[in-house]
Inverse folding.
């Protein structure tokens, strides 16, 4: 069966520090991968998606970036965090049939 | 007008009630329809997935799609306190990157 792992689950970072969130999918190959951010009461905001290794599409211009170094690995990064980067970050994958499967999320607090 | 509209609630019902959650949409190209359940501080969990008009049943859950009215519903029978969560509808077009468009979610509270 397919599983998705996302870490760390919680982190508190100072403004200006770097960020790295990792996501790994097991049990499938060549998935579409997605990073979402969910702010309180504001729904899901798509940040990045990838249809293959090294292929990244950005939906929202900001100080975040994403990379896909391996088929089933998706990384969300920032060189310098802003207060506004605080939120709940979710990684998701799909076979390409429209149904997304989400990880447990990473809660980021920037102080 | 947003592509997907969903009342944020909260919707509060007594245990055992039938719950109706709804979304409307404006893009007639949507072909895949999904409902997710999200507990507090957790990732969304896929509940129902359908790609045709009509009803799809899974245990206490029934998903209904009316493409002519651009309206989808999720019914929960015999609601339980454990059903208390936020329910998000989502829909996508066929092909491309299959990026779904999400509703903002409805908060459901089932009280004993």
């Amino acid at each position: 069966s397919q599983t998705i792992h996302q870490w760390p689950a919680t982190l508190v970072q100072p403004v200006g520090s770097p960020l790295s969130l990792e996501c790994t999918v097991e049990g499938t190959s060549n998935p579409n991968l997605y990073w979402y951010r969910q702010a309180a009461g504001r729904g899901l905001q798509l940040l990045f998606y990838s249809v293959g290794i090294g292929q990244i599409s950005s939906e929202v211009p900001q100080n975040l970036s994403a990379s896909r170094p391996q088929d089933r690995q998706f990384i969300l990064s920032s060189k310098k965090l802003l207060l506004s980067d605080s939120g709940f970050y979710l990684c998701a994958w799909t076979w390409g049939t429209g149904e997304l499967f989400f990880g447990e999320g990473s809660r980021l607090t920037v102080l | 007008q947003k592509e997907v509209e969903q009342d944020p609630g909260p919707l509060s019902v007594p245990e055992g009630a039938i719950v109706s959650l709804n979304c409307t949409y404006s893009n007639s190209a949507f072909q895949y329809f999904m409902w997710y359940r999200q507990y507090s501080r957790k990732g969304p969990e896929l509940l129902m997935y359908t790609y045709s008009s009509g009803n799809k049943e899974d245990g206490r859950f029934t998903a209904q799609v009316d493409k002519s009215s651009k309206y989808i519903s999720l019914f929960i029978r015999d609601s339980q306190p454990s059903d208390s969560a936020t329910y998000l509808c989502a829909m996508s077009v066929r092909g491309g990157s299959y990026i779904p468009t999400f509703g903002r979610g409805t908060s459901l509270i089932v009280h004993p």
